[in-house]
Amino acid sequence: MTLTTPALLFPAISLLLLAYTNRFLVLAQLIRKLADEERDRHQSGTARQIVLLRRRISLTKRMQVAGVLSFLLCTLSMFALFLSLELLGMLLFGVSLVTLSISLIYSLWEVTISTNALNVQLQDIEDLRKGSSAVAAEEAGP
User: Fold this and answer.
1) Which SS3 state, helix, strand or coil, does residue 115 take?
2) Whose CA, among 61, 79, 91, 97, lies 20 to 30 Å from 44?
3) What is the pLDDT of residues 15-47, one digit of tens each?
């Protein structure tokens, strides 16, 4: 294995960490918006959304930690290979790939929860529409 093998992961890991940071920022915005709405009026889907947001924050933290650890291990692998410690470099690179895979699994899990959270919001919209339709029909009378 040469020094360039782990170096190939650098751009991918950097972009992955950037994507994770963006997901975190989106989650932070959603939580702030939800908190503002909750202060204004109580919504029925808020409790379900809060549970999903907590789970997503936890997963985002875990995937970021695994991604950063992967990046660090990849860097240490390159350093070991630079010092001609090939066995250590290969071992560190292998562990780096494992932590990168763990990070991707967390990301996939978070995307699944994110989809569920969007379905909660869609259900709330549908319930509001049904409620508005029923009220409008009642007001129209017989």
Assistant:
1) helix
2) 61
3) 887 888 887 788 778 777 776 676 566 655 667
